Structures are given as structure tokens and as C-alpha cells.
Amino acid sequence: MAAPERTRELRVIPVPFPDEIQPKESLSAKLLIALKHHKSSLQAGDILVLKHKIVSKAEGQLVDLQTIKPSPSSRAWARRYKLDARVTEVALAQSKRLVRRKRGVLITETHHGLICANSGVDVSNVNGGQHALLLPDDPDRSAAKLHRDLKKHLKLSIPIIISDSFGRPWREGLTEVAIGVAGMQALHDYRGARDPHGYPLRVSIEAVADELASAAGLVCGKLARTPACIIRGFAYRPGRGGARDLIRPAKTDLFR
Known about the structure:
The protein is α+β, with helices and mostly antiparallel strands. It has helices spanning about 25-35, 50-60, 70-80, 85-95, 140-155, 210-215, and strands spanning about 10-15, 45-50, 60-65, 95-100, 105-110, 115, 130-135, 160-170, 170-180, 190, 205, 230. It is globular and about 55 Å long.
């Protein structure tokens, strides 16, 4: 039986960046500059959560919309719902499966296995609509690279979570989820443990990476120009987990 986890106080510390990150710019160097600028520092036990947009920008995951020639079906769809047909075309190109297309909403499965609107393609907070921003090509790999870079510079093993905003079936509003993870287990499995009343837990697997991403989202707001947050005080489990561990396999998914 697993030992009970003691309750701890958590802190979520914003890390604003002094300016926009540019394609091919070192994300680790930019982060260290931001920490120094705000007289902050990373400590042993901290977790770093970053919005995916700064990762995608640093990796050059930008598409010039002037180069996109939408298909007739994308044009018809966009015209009907007053959308940008070029963004629709990019979203379809970034998908491996069309899940749902109705009332102006395009739900796809990306090549990462993520189910989300428009394949995660976004034009907000980019450069005024001239370019579309894609998800990182491999968010777990991106998280692992930053994890290694920070370990090299700081001699600290800092877990990394890359987050994005997702809608949810049956519930209104967006919430942050982890799309890239390195240096920690994304899931905490409590199966086999017993609750305080002695009842054995059989299905309790907690998506802690998603919960931490959401906690950071409360501080790294949509308009706050704060693309990173430090989470301090959470008893994470070190390991080689990734955000791919959070994707439910098709054989256990009742909705596929």
C-alpha cells in the first residue's frame, strides 16, 4: 500500500518575458534572461510550465498565410461561417483525422494524437494575423531539450510542462492541458492504495501534469504576457514520463 501523501502548500510564480521570442532563438537563454530580469530563480523541486506558443515560436513553427491556397471545400466552409479559409486549410493539413466538423467548429486529431479544435493552429498573439502558429512538432522532445539545457546551465533537474488551451466535451470554457512533459511522471497511479476508510482504489489515476498546467494557466493568463510559470511545492514523481502518457489508447476509449 502506498504511503499517504502529505498536504503541501503550492505557489505559482509568474515569469514574464521582457520581449517576444523570435524564431530560432534559444528558449533556455531567453528564460534565464527573464528570470534574471525579474530577480527570480529556479530551485530544486520546482516545476516549470510554459505556454506552447513560445516553444512553437522558438522552433519556427510559423506558417505565412499568404502562401496558403485554400481548397474549394475550405473556402465554402469558411465563407459559410465567416472564418479564414487559409487557417482551415492549415488545420486540415496538420490533422491525421477529422473528428467533427459542424457549426463552424473543426475538431481534429493531430499527428501527436491530440484531439482539439483546428489541430491547435492559432493566429492570436502571433503577429496580427499574418502568420498561423502550429503546435511544436514533438512537444515531449521540446520539453526534454529544455530540461537538458536547464540542467546544463543550472545544475538542477527541473521538470518541464508545455501547455495549451483545450476545450472539453460536455463543458463550456477552455482549460490548460499538458501537451509536452519531461523530467516527471505525467500520471500518478493510485490503484492498489486504500482511501482513509480502507476502501481499495481500483481506477484512480490522476493526470497531475494537466492539473499543474491548469494551475499555471490561472497566472499565465491569455493577455498577461506571461508565457511561463514556476510551480513550487508540488511533490512530483521524477521519471521519464511524457505527455503522450496522457492520451487514452483507442482500445480503452469509449467514444471512438
